[in-house]
Specification:
Blueprint: H1 9-33, H2 41-67, H3 74-77, H4 81-94, H5 109-133, H6 138-147, H7 150-178, H8 180-188
Length: 198
């Protein structure tokens, strides 16, 4: 069952903003890479930059809320020995070889691992994007040189977007097959509480 106490309003708002940013970044990024209609480049680049800044700000805020505030959830994100031991069982569960995943808290070991990876991927994607935007700044010029120039960085940025798509598709599948009640809570505020036992 999905409880509002597990997903406070601040976390849900940031989740929604991240989704909005990813949609805007994807559509505008596709257009910048493959202009599919004339006369929109200026608008699409502007939308891409605005969504990029909001994307970074919401990521920083979410990381901040892991450690600080009434709704801090550091305990739910800690990865311990039980998580490490449970990864195999959880993978087998998603391959339909186990009845239950190894649950070590709000998130199972594979969810925690995936969310860590997504956070790192977001930071990586932000760095590649900033390198394309601020390519003359010393640090970003160094990053461009590290990957072999502007064209290679564009390709890395574009490929990383496809990795995000693959993860999001998996996430959507898991939500609708495993945790539909959490979808209702995250987007519509509908809280489902466990039925009272008699």
């Amino acid at each position: 069952m999905a409880l509002a106490s597990e997903h406070p309003l601040s976390h849900r708002i940031l989740h929604g903003l991240h989704l909005l940013c990813m949609i805007v970044l994807s559509v505008s990024g596709f257009y910048i890479h493959y202009p599919f209609a004339p006369g929109l480049m200026g608008t699409m680049r502007y939308l891409h930059f605005v969504a990029m800044y909001l994307f970074v700000v919401t990521l920083v805020l979410r990381i901040y809320l892991v450690f600080v505030g009434v709704n801090r959830d550091l305990a739910e994100w800690r990865f311990g020995k039980r998580d490490l031991a449970g990864i195999g069982q959880t993978i087998r569960y998603y391959l339909f070889l186990e009845r239950e995943p190894a649950q070590t808290g709000k998130y199972n070991p594979l969810q925690k691992s995936t969310y860590y990876f997504i956070a790192l991927l977001m930071i990586f994607q932000a760095l590649t994007g900033f390198s394309l935007y601020w390519r003359e700044q010393p640090f970003f010029a160094w990053l461009l040189g590290l990957v072999g120039g502007l064209a290679n960085m564009r390709s890395i940025h574009f490929i990383t977007m496809w990795i995000f798509f693959a993860i999001v598709l998996g996430h959507v599948y898991m939500v609708f097959t495993e945790a539909y009640d959490r979808f209702l809570l995250m987007f519509f505020g509908i809280e489902r509480k466990p039925a009272a036992s008699r």
